Amino acid sequence: MTTAPTAPTAPLALTPLHHRTRDTVAAHRDDVVALSHSLHAEPELAYEEHRSAKKIADLVERAGFAVERGVCDLPTAFTATAGSGDLVIGICAEYDALPGIGHACGHNVNGAAATTAALALAPFADELGITVKLLGTPAEEYGGGKADMLRAGAFDDVAAAMMVHAAPTDAIGMTSLAISSWQVAYTGRTAHASAAPHRGVNAADALMIAQVAIGAHRQQMVPGGVVHGITTSGGEASNVIPGRTTAAYDCRAETVADLRELQSRIRACFEAGALATGAELTLTPVGNDYADLQQDLAMTALYAGAATALGRTVPPRDPSLRGGSTDMGNVSQVVPTIHPMIGYDCAGAIMHNPEFTRYGTTPGADRALLDGGLAMAWTALSLAQDDTHRARLLARLAARRTN
């Protein structure tokens, strides 16, 4: 059954403070656009984003933020804070890129938009009774820096978390799939493929049997489950029984509970390959498992109103819409979170494609980072100034601290 999209949200009614934050963004416009372009020009991979993290941290430090670098035992993570209020607004900056195709997921826009939001709020933090906490979160594409930082306590004081993500179109309230990744290795025994094949243990056959078993399981797979992978090595010569094969595989599901069920079945498929051939199986988890994204509906509505007030066309929330996978999902399981998509014209290019990279520094992308940053800042204003929103967030934070 298809769930109908929700009704659109009315534009936010602007107050003098909204205009003051907009003026602050205008004052920082050149800096944050230059930041986005610089991140785009020097893409860095997961956990290696030394220049990228420094660029953002240096910029907000010059603006008066208290910056702590290398937090949570992650050299490319940081936190930057302004204000001292009890309502801590966490704004997540992403800045890692993809191998070979750079910022094909638009993380230069993501990181610059987060920086824009933090800079917009900082001068008014004490007036609002908030603490602005910009979190530099590495390795979203591979590894899950937010999961590392969540586990290490970086979000322990955060009452509300937010970020925007570059995309071809705006979207709000979407979900994502939980994901786990494995490196797969079968170790057998090489032998002459003609003279003494019976002396060998065929590691390639083990992987083939596992792949057939996975294919057979698809009919019974948990609803929404996805399994995909590649063979990374499969032997050295056609006349040698392969003694070792390796592969990389991902499992995705709609919820963490479904992911655990799927992992169990797919693990059994890989074990079947080992059992049938006598090869030894090694399954090595890669990075953190990502949880499904659960966005806070009240915060989502506030963001939609803010973005609409900026002249953006924000489609109604569609509960059936889901993205790929993100470590912001892990944060959302603990902290009230939003992760809207901020769109710009990409001439039909899709994310994770080199064509998308080309559009990351266009005027449309620059407007997206400015609008996304200001919309987040205006969302934070609403959370801080509305007693109901503020009380709800602080009550949830207090409950987390007592559990």
In short:
The protein has 403 residues and is of the alpha/beta class. Helix content is 41%, strand content 17%. It has twelve helices and twelve strands.
Task: Spell out the blueprint of helices and strands.
Layout: H1 16-41, H2 50-62, E1 66-69, E2 78-82, E3 87-93, H3 107-121, H4 125-128, E4 130-136, H5 145-152, E5 160-162, E6 165-167, E7 178-187, H6 203-217, E8 226-233, E9 244-253, H7 256-277, E10 280-285, H8 297-309, H9 328-332, E11 337-338, E12 341-343, H10 354-358, H11 363-385, H12 387-402
Parallel strand pairs: 3-4, 3-5, 5-11, 6-12
Antiparallel strand pairs: 1-2, 2-4, 7-9, 7-10, 8-9
Helix pairs in contact: 1-2, 1-3, 1-11, 3-11, 6-7, 8-11, 11-12
Strand content: 15-25%
Beginning-to-end CA distance, first to last residue:
37 Å
Strand element count: 12
Helix content: 40-55%
Largest sheet, spatial ordering of strands: 1-2-4-3-5-11
Overall shape: it is: elongated
- Spell the H/E element sequence: HHEEEHHEHEEEHEEHEHHEEHHH
Task: Describe it.
The protein has 403 residues and is α/β, with parallel strands linked by helices. The chain has helices at residues 16-41, 50-62, 107-121, 125-128, 145-152, 203-217, 256-277, 297-309, 328-332, 354-358, 363-385, 387-402, and strands at 66-69, 78-82, 87-93, 130-136, 160-162, 165-167, 178-187, 226-233, 244-253, 280-285, 337-338, 341-343. The protein has a six-stranded mixed sheet with strand order 1-2-4-3-5-11. Strands 8-9-7-10 form a four-stranded antiparallel sheet. Strands 6-12 form a two-stranded parallel ribbon. It is elongated, with a radius of gyration of 23 Å. Residues 1-6 have low confidence and may be disordered.
